[in-house]
């Protein structure tokens, strides 16, 4: 039986071109980028070229890109680094109830240091209201962090409108754009953001490498110490193979975001059409404000763990939400924020997420297997 991988929001397969680029970096460019000899200069060139490409993909300056170990570290640096550096201006932070745990747990940590955090609610489609941000702002607010695309239901937030709102306020604006990168054209100037998080492994690049865009005039408190790398903002010897692979992954999508978006919209439409043959399902989120890469579905009358286990046995690999909380079979904090603690939709939700290798036939085959699994489980529970 052919395996069907529909968990690209958790991670994506490494593209062959990326693997080849990384292999070359591992064997040919092993010098430390901080060394001044020829091998060091070769490695430094690779880092500099990658920084330029990634900056271009965000409409940013290369000096504003900080390489990190991934999206989680970039979120931590943006949230904690900003708060610690600017606490003399206030100790109030605004975020949403549906953020990735890299943001939420950073905010929880800051609360132990005396910061106050407002967790904005969302409506039933998972959207954070711009007006809610406005009403939560105070003279003490130093940071607002709202993700661009939710990693569980795919809701697209009105980031540009929020950025415009904050133009005349002291608060810095951060967005986690991990799930938007590669599928939505991003321009930090047009979005009016001060900080933005991306990572490589969601765009068919390697794990263990990400980046934080930081507007040049924004000051951060480093979280690590011990070196001058990344302009003293993130010390440590650079992950050269990861950086080289990150660059290659970005070059594969750069300028093709809208074409990719259109292709995934077609695939998702077919997927959802095929799903209609299954009774008692709810597609979570607003179809007009959701990423074409993610489809979150509640199969009423089932339970998450039994669906995941049986789909796995049937060769369908999906998840119930964030991979960072997988293993803890609790209801999604995102769906609870959308629907309330006791709503049945929170107990049976499965996330399907799409990738480059998917075809129309894959959409038909996966929904066929899902239908068989759901119908079997429902019969067993009668």
Task: Please write out the topology.
Blueprint: E1 4-5, H1 16-28, H2 38-58, E2 65-68, H3 71-86, E3 92-96, H4 101-112, E4 116-120, H5 130-136, E5 141-145, H6 159-165, E6 172-176, H7 188-191, E7 195-199, E8 210-214, H8 240-253, H9 257-275, E9 281-284, E10 294-299, H10 304-313, E11 316-317, H11 333-339, E12 349-353, H12 360-380
Parallel strand pairs: 1-11, 3-4, 3-5, 5-6, 6-7
Antiparallel strand pairs: 2-8, 7-8, 9-10, 10-12
Helix pairs in contact: 1-8, 2-8, 3-4, 9-12, 10-12
GO molecular function: cysteine desulfurase activity; iron-sulfur cluster binding; metal ion binding
EC number: 2.8.1.7
Keywords: Iron, Iron-sulfur, Metal-binding, Pyridoxal phosphate, Transferase
What does this structure look like?
Residues 5-361 form the Aminotransferase class V domain. Belongs to the class-V pyridoxal-phosphate-dependent aminotransferase family. NifS/IscS subfamily. This is cysteine desulfurase. With 382 residues, the chain is an alpha/beta fold. The chain has two domains: 4-12 and 257-380, Alpha-Beta Complex (Aspartate Aminotransferase, domain 1), CATH 3.90.1150.10; 16-253, Aspartate Aminotransferase, domain 2. The protein is built from twelve helices and twelve strands. It has helices at 16-28, 38-58, 71-86, 101-112, 130-136, 159-165, 188-191, 240-253, 257-275, 304-313, 333-339, 360-380; strands spanning 4-5, 65-68, 92-96, 116-120, 141-145, 172-176, 195-199, 210-214, 281-284, 294-299, 316-317, 349-353. The strands form three sheets. Strands 2-8-7-6-5-3-4 form a seven-stranded mixed β-sheet, with helices on both faces. It has a three-stranded antiparallel β-sheet with strand order 9-10-12. A two-stranded parallel sheet has the order 1-11. Helix 7 (188-191) links the parallel strand 6 and strand 7. Helix 2 runs parallel beside helix 8, helix 3 (71-86) packs parallel to helix 4 and helix 10 crosses helix 12. It is globular, with a radius of gyration of 21 Å. The mean pLDDT is 95.
